[in-house]
Write a structure and sequence with these properties.
Helix content: over 70%
Strand order of the largest sheet: 1-2
Structural class: mainly alpha
Distance between the termini: 58 Å
Order of helices and strands: HHEEHHHH
Mean pLDDT: 78
Oligomer: single chain
Low-confidence stretches: none
Length: 195
Amino acid sequence: MRGTSWRKRIESRLAELENSQPAPTDSYLATIRGIEDLYKEAIRTRRIRALSIRSVSVALVTIGVLLPIVSQLVNDNGNQAIPPFWSSVALAAAAVLVSLDYYLRIWDSWKNCVVTENAIHGELDRVLLEQQIEEFSSANIDRNAPKEVAKTESRMSSLLAFVRSNVEFEAKESDWRDPRARTIELLRYCRPFPR
Protein backbone atom coordinates (compact mmCIF):
# COMPACT_ATOMS: atom_id res chain seq x y z
CA MET A 1 0.00 0.00 0.00
CA ARG A 2 3.08 2.22 0.11
CA GLY A 3 2.91 3.06 -3.60
CA THR A 4 -0.67 4.29 -3.32
CA SER A 5 -1.12 8.02 -2.97
CA TRP A 6 -1.96 9.29 0.49
CA ARG A 7 -5.30 10.68 -0.65
CA LYS A 8 -6.38 7.26 -1.97
CA ARG A 9 -5.36 5.71 1.34
CA ILE A 10 -7.55 8.24 3.17
CA GLU A 11 -10.47 7.50 0.86
CA SER A 12 -10.10 3.74 1.35
CA ARG A 13 -10.00 4.12 5.14
CA LEU A 14 -13.11 6.29 5.12
CA ALA A 15 -14.89 3.83 2.82
CA GLU A 16 -14.00 0.94 5.13
CA LEU A 17 -15.49 2.80 8.08
CA GLU A 18 -18.65 3.72 6.20
CA ASN A 19 -19.17 0.15 5.02
CA SER A 20 -18.61 -1.45 8.42
CA GLN A 21 -21.22 0.51 10.36
CA PRO A 22 -21.87 0.16 13.18
CA ALA A 23 -18.16 -0.12 13.95
CA PRO A 24 -16.69 -0.12 17.43
CA THR A 25 -15.69 3.27 18.80
CA ASP A 26 -12.03 2.23 18.98
CA SER A 27 -12.08 1.39 15.28
CA TYR A 28 -13.45 4.84 14.43
CA LEU A 29 -10.92 6.62 16.59
CA ALA A 30 -7.98 4.57 15.31
CA THR A 31 -8.97 5.20 11.71
CA ILE A 32 -9.41 8.94 12.28
CA ARG A 33 -6.02 9.06 14.02
CA GLY A 34 -4.54 7.23 11.01
CA ILE A 35 -6.05 9.80 8.66
CA GLU A 36 -4.64 12.56 10.83
CA ASP A 37 -1.20 10.93 10.62
CA LEU A 38 -1.46 10.74 6.82
CA TYR A 39 -2.20 14.46 6.75
CA LYS A 40 0.83 15.13 8.93
CA GLU A 41 3.02 13.25 6.43
CA ALA A 42 1.48 15.19 3.54
CA ILE A 43 2.01 18.49 5.35
CA ARG A 44 5.71 17.77 5.74
CA THR A 45 6.30 16.95 2.08
CA ARG A 46 4.12 19.78 0.81
CA ARG A 47 5.79 22.28 3.14
CA ILE A 48 9.21 21.34 1.77
CA ARG A 49 7.98 21.71 -1.79
CA ALA A 50 6.18 25.02 -1.19
CA LEU A 51 8.95 26.64 0.82
CA SER A 52 11.67 25.55 -1.59
CA ILE A 53 9.84 27.10 -4.56
CA ARG A 54 9.24 30.33 -2.65
CA SER A 55 12.84 30.44 -1.38
CA VAL A 56 14.34 29.86 -4.81
CA SER A 57 12.11 32.54 -6.34
CA VAL A 58 13.11 35.05 -3.63
CA ALA A 59 16.78 34.20 -4.22
CA LEU A 60 16.35 34.68 -7.97
CA VAL A 61 14.68 38.07 -7.46
CA THR A 62 17.52 39.10 -5.15
CA ILE A 63 20.09 38.01 -7.73
CA GLY A 64 18.15 39.80 -10.46
CA VAL A 65 18.08 43.04 -8.48
CA LEU A 66 21.70 42.94 -7.30
CA LEU A 67 23.28 41.73 -10.53
CA PRO A 68 23.23 45.12 -12.37
CA ILE A 69 24.81 46.79 -9.35
CA VAL A 70 27.51 44.14 -9.08
CA SER A 71 28.14 44.23 -12.83
CA GLN A 72 28.81 47.98 -12.61
CA LEU A 73 31.23 47.46 -9.73
CA VAL A 74 33.17 44.59 -11.26
CA ASN A 75 34.86 45.76 -14.43
CA ASP A 76 37.20 43.75 -16.60
CA ASN A 77 39.39 46.33 -18.44
CA GLY A 78 36.46 48.70 -18.94
CA ASN A 79 34.02 45.95 -19.91
CA GLN A 80 31.37 44.61 -17.61
CA ALA A 81 32.43 41.21 -16.24
CA ILE A 82 28.82 40.08 -15.88
CA PRO A 83 26.43 40.96 -18.68
CA PRO A 84 23.35 42.76 -17.28
CA PHE A 85 20.99 40.56 -19.32
CA TRP A 86 21.48 37.83 -16.67
CA SER A 87 19.48 40.05 -14.37
CA SER A 88 16.49 39.72 -16.70
CA VAL A 89 16.99 35.96 -16.90
CA ALA A 90 16.97 35.66 -13.10
CA LEU A 91 13.84 37.81 -12.80
CA ALA A 92 12.09 35.84 -15.56
CA ALA A 93 12.98 32.54 -13.85
CA ALA A 94 11.56 33.89 -10.56
CA ALA A 95 8.38 34.91 -12.37
CA VAL A 96 8.06 31.42 -13.88
CA LEU A 97 8.47 29.80 -10.45
CA VAL A 98 5.86 32.07 -8.89
CA SER A 99 3.50 31.38 -11.79
CA LEU A 100 3.98 27.63 -11.45
CA ASP A 101 3.37 27.89 -7.73
CA TYR A 102 0.20 29.86 -8.39
CA TYR A 103 -1.10 27.64 -11.17
CA LEU A 104 -0.27 24.29 -9.53
CA ARG A 105 -1.52 25.55 -6.16
CA ILE A 106 1.53 24.27 -4.34
CA TRP A 107 1.41 26.86 -1.54
CA ASP A 108 -2.40 26.59 -1.28
CA SER A 109 -2.18 22.82 -1.17
CA TRP A 110 0.14 22.98 1.84
CA LYS A 111 -2.11 25.55 3.53
CA ASN A 112 -5.23 23.45 2.90
CA CYS A 113 -3.54 20.34 4.32
CA VAL A 114 -2.62 22.23 7.50
CA VAL A 115 -6.14 23.61 7.89
CA THR A 116 -7.75 20.21 7.31
CA GLU A 117 -5.41 18.39 9.70
CA ASN A 118 -6.06 21.01 12.38
CA ALA A 119 -9.83 20.74 11.87
CA ILE A 120 -9.75 16.93 12.09
CA HIS A 121 -7.53 17.08 15.18
CA GLY A 122 -9.79 19.64 16.86
CA GLU A 123 -12.97 17.70 16.11
CA LEU A 124 -11.42 14.45 17.28
CA ASP A 125 -10.30 16.09 20.52
CA ARG A 126 -13.78 17.57 20.99
CA VAL A 127 -15.43 14.17 20.54
CA LEU A 128 -12.98 12.48 22.89
CA LEU A 129 -13.47 15.18 25.53
CA GLU A 130 -17.25 14.89 25.17
CA GLN A 131 -16.98 11.13 25.57
CA GLN A 132 -14.77 11.41 28.67
CA ILE A 133 -17.05 13.98 30.30
CA GLU A 134 -20.00 11.69 29.68
CA GLU A 135 -18.15 8.71 31.16
CA PHE A 136 -17.20 10.61 34.31
CA SER A 137 -20.61 12.18 34.80
CA SER A 138 -22.55 8.96 34.34
CA ALA A 139 -20.37 6.27 35.88
CA ASN A 140 -23.33 4.10 36.89
CA ILE A 141 -24.95 3.91 33.45
CA ASP A 142 -24.72 0.69 31.47
CA ARG A 143 -22.60 1.33 28.31
CA ASN A 144 -24.35 -1.46 26.43
CA ALA A 145 -27.83 0.01 26.86
CA PRO A 146 -29.49 0.74 23.51
CA LYS A 147 -29.74 4.45 24.25
CA GLU A 148 -26.03 4.72 25.05
CA VAL A 149 -25.02 2.66 22.02
CA ALA A 150 -27.16 4.85 19.77
CA LYS A 151 -25.63 8.00 21.26
CA THR A 152 -22.11 6.69 20.68
CA GLU A 153 -22.92 5.60 17.12
CA SER A 154 -24.44 9.01 16.41
CA ARG A 155 -21.34 10.75 17.76
CA MET A 156 -19.00 8.57 15.67
CA SER A 157 -21.07 8.93 12.49
CA SER A 158 -21.10 12.73 12.88
CA LEU A 159 -17.32 12.62 13.37
CA LEU A 160 -17.00 10.52 10.22
CA ALA A 161 -19.21 12.94 8.27
CA PHE A 162 -17.11 15.88 9.51
CA VAL A 163 -13.85 14.20 8.45
CA ARG A 164 -15.33 13.20 5.08
CA SER A 165 -16.51 16.76 4.31
CA ASN A 166 -13.15 18.26 5.30
CA VAL A 167 -11.19 15.76 3.22
CA GLU A 168 -13.41 16.39 0.18
CA PHE A 169 -13.11 20.16 0.60
CA GLU A 170 -9.33 19.95 0.86
CA ALA A 171 -9.14 17.71 -2.19
CA LYS A 172 -11.30 20.09 -4.23
CA GLU A 173 -9.38 23.18 -3.14
CA SER A 174 -5.96 21.61 -3.73
CA ASP A 175 -6.75 20.10 -7.14
CA TRP A 176 -4.68 21.92 -9.73
CA ARG A 177 -6.22 19.99 -12.61
CA ASP A 178 -9.49 21.96 -12.58
CA PRO A 179 -8.72 24.09 -15.64
CA ARG A 180 -12.06 25.86 -15.78
CA ALA A 181 -11.74 27.30 -12.28
CA ARG A 182 -8.14 28.35 -12.88
CA THR A 183 -9.00 29.95 -16.24
CA ILE A 184 -11.88 31.91 -14.73
CA GLU A 185 -9.63 33.05 -11.90
CA LEU A 186 -6.90 34.13 -14.34
CA LEU A 187 -9.40 35.97 -16.53
CA ARG A 188 -10.70 37.84 -13.53
CA TYR A 189 -7.19 39.21 -12.91
CA CYS A 190 -6.38 39.81 -16.58
CA ARG A 191 -9.50 41.65 -17.72
CA PRO A 192 -8.89 45.13 -19.13
CA PHE A 193 -9.60 48.20 -17.08
CA PRO A 194 -13.04 49.77 -17.62
CA ARG A 195 -13.03 52.83 -19.83
